[in-house]
Write a structure and sequence with these properties.
Elements lengths: L21 H14 L1 H10 L8 H4 L10 H32 L4
Length: about 100
């Protein structure tokens, strides 16, 4: 089977070998499938699609846009200003301490 053909049908739980919870979990999972809870959650949270369906390549999501210079300039400049201020303050404290011999 090729990877693109694979579909995830359900999740899994990691248990120790011969775990006392294995039978209980299997029973609960089967009960959730038979009562329709899994289908309800699939419709509610995944819109009825399979978890492995590719939504990024097949559908354009509204409101999504690539980050560009205009979106990153302000946060980057605020960060750079903060780093420069911190370095300047550290340098000033070092110079004051070295010339006066006192802690600031």
């Amino acid at each position: 089977m090729h990877l693109p053909d694979a579909k995830a049908e359900m999740g899994s739980f990691g248990l120790q070998t011969d775990s006392e919870f294995e039978e209980f979990l299997n029973h609960q999972i089967i009960a959730m499938h038979s009562s329709g809870v899994v289908d309800f959650l699939n419709n509610k949270w995944l819109g009825g699609r399979e978890p492995s369906d590719d939504i990024c390549g097949s559908q354009q999501q509204e409101g999504a846009f690539p980050l560009g210079f205009e979106n990153l300039f302000f946060p980057s400049s605020v960060f750079a200003t903060g780093v420069a201020a911190a370095v300047a303050m550290a340098l000033a404290e070092f110079l004051i301490k070295s010339f006066t011999g006192t802690n600031v």
